[in-house]
Amino acid sequence: MSIITRYLLRRFLGIAVFTSIASVLVYITVDLMENLDKFIDTNTPAEQIVRYYVYYTPQILVTILPVILLLTTVFSLGGLVRRMEVTAMKAGGISPGRLMRLVAFWALIASGLSFLVSETLVTDTARERMEIYRTAVKRKPQGLRQNSGRIYFQNDEHSFLTLENYSVEAGRGRRASFIQVKDGRVVWRVDADTLVHTSEGWVLRKGEERRLKPFVSARNFTLRPFPELKLKAGDVETLQAVPEEMNLRELRAFIERQKQAGAFTRRWEVNAQGKMAGPLANFVIVLFGVPLALRRHRAGIMLGFGLSLLSAFAYYGLQVVCQNLGYKGLLTPVQSAWLPNAAFALAALLLYWRVDR
């Protein structure tokens, strides 16, 4: 690693740490002010509030990381421009293009780390955070989560199970319905008040079983062992997690289950593409902001800072517009997620070419 690279990296990391701490504190303060009345009305303990925001911090960092990197880039490179260090580097044979490529490489690494953190730490802490919100603020029973109001499980090619909700701690689901279909017609249906997991497997309680082929029959039952269900108890928590709390693999599996159940999945397909395209925003925003930071303006670094910040808001605005167009079916999920990255990457390359000349 060259002296210049170490010097720039030290400045970049120092500003990034300070900017991250300040940005997270501002975000938490604003969010706390918005939710303070809810915490007060429900008498949420201070300890729970602290835990809520501790679990929220990873998601906050991933969400605002493009802005953090943008501000870091502008202040670090803008400082070099202001102190004429870029001019000195040019005299030493170091072109602005080299600086841009160096910072862009760091931003690409940050994008990869952002994706890894989003797929691991963020999803785990999001589940804990939302559990605190459900139990402490919404006053719902602990361990009770729902998936769009229901849990769906495709048992095999011809049968599926639905549950109104499921308690992880109790190992019990409410309002179970198991349906088997052949040749487009229901041939077997079981409805029960409760589905319980015991040491011997799944058991249905208080329900009715109806068979429509080869002849019609119906019977009520109090307890019925249910070995036909292939669902494992350890898989239920994944089935019941809301899509916002899933990583990409879990979300894709959720989409497949929803398709098999005949549900509308366009919104989740857009979100799945967004999980892949989102981390790349770090690279694109930095790539767009570096040329603005390196260009000298009479108004100084603040003009470059303002233009860079404006580009970040424009990117997020385009991202929201494309996402909503994807939800409505006017863009495909791939187009809705990747169009903002493509547009700003093209603009960044044009700026890169002008500065490197």
Relevant terms:
357 residues; alpha+beta; 2 domains; 8 strands; elongated
Structural commentary:
The chain folds into 2 domains: 3-139 and 270-356, no CATH class; 148-240, no CATH class. It contains 10 helices and 8 strands. The longest helix is centred in the N-terminal third of the chain and has 42 residues, at 96-137. The model is unreliable at 143-149 (pLDDT under 50). With 357 residues, it is α+β, with helices and mostly antiparallel strands. The chain is elongated, with a radius of gyration of 27 Å. Helices cover 62% and strands 17% of the residues. Helix 2 (46-82) runs antiparallel to helix 4 (96-137) and helix 4 (96-137) packs across helix 8 (281-294). Strands 1, 2, 3, 4, 5, 6, 7 and 8 form an 8-stranded antiparallel β-sheet that branches. It has helices spanning 3-41, 46-82, 85-91, 96-137, 236-240, 248-260, 266-277, 281-294, 301-327, 333-356; strands at 144-145, 151-154, 159-163, 165-167, 172-182, 185-198, 201-211, 217-225. A hairpin with a 4-residue loop joins strand 2 (151-154) and strand 3 (159-163).
